[in-house]
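Reading a protein record of the kind used here takes little practice once its layout is understood. An example of such a record is reproduced below.
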Amino acid sequence: MEHPFIKTNEFLFSQAILGREILRTGVSISSNKEWDSILFTGCTGFIGGFLLRELLENTIAKIYCLVRCDNEKQGNERLVACMQEKGLWEERFGSRIRIIKGDLNLPKLGLSHNTRSQLAEKIDVIFHLGASVNWASNYTREVQANVLSFIELLKLAITRKVKPIHYSSSMGAYASLNKSFSNPILENEVFHEPGSLFGGYCQSKWVCEKLVEQARMRNVPINLYRIGEVNGDSSTGLSDLKNFINLFMGFCIMNQMAPESYRKAKFNLVPVDYMTKAMLQISKNMEGNGKNFQFNSSQIFTMEEMVNEMNHCGYRVRFVSDDVWENALKEGSWLAKRIRTIFKKLKISEDAQEVSLFDIGQSVFLRGHDTSNTDQALKGSEVRCGKIIDDGILHNYLNYIIKNL
């Protein structure tokens, strides 16, 4: 019997057929012109807030932010509050932000015909970071926010004038249950076995990657950024406390333990400030119909190295047996419940070995990530990724997490 979070290759390929209505017919504008107006989705998210700040600091554009809200005033308050939480807001930004009431979970982005027409006329470029990010959900629940909303943005991108899209995908589009996939993940490829992906989020991102392929063939310019384990600000340590890796590190420190069986697990943490600076640099120099870009940490490390750094920072953490670890996860705290969900073993099929969401994530992190396109696009720029351990970035993360969890 098929697991509800698994879909077949045939089903997912059938979902990834771009409609004939997506055909470039509008007047083309230069991908690299100085932008006057930007449409931005995902501005209240962690990565979105940092990229919004980069756009406000490094362009002169008005930024039209799609926000789920009841009215413009409420949407503005929500956006400002999210930026203030990250220490990113400045009052001078307000004059350049326009709130667009919308919702990725609604048909046609929840936009009226009049609003859609105005955006089609005004907008020069689209940054699409918004998504429903739930690794423990099925495809049916994720398709509207992640796939159908993207198709609506494709339609908007070709109306009146052609607008380049900068689309945030995910390394989850490669999070395969099949452990035989061990080769490095190449930027210019799209995964060929989607039936081995687990959960609606990863599947929906794969479908969108296939739609991007087809849209480019119809001369719609799209840059695709595969985002992996993005973490906090490298200088301040400010981190997303909803992020699993941060919750996991906090749990290890608070309980003074880490699971022995995952001693060799690998982490590829990419600082959010580096990645958003890189995305802006790449987006301002778009080539042709676009490329795919991936981001690597400059220092991938194991759980053993993570624990060593925890101890170096003054926290007392030791490796424990699976039994001791699993007993710790049975405690009633909200943090233990969140970690338990990630480490819970799942029976995908009768003949398959049990795996956890953590194991599925490792299927991506244990593979190398090709960054040839990214390296070339950043060549000659000042955008650099610091070394996570050697430059004290992980130290900053750990201190922030413990102070704020």
In short: The chain has 14 helices and 15 strands. The mean pLDDT is 93. Residues 244-268+301-363+386-404 form one domain.
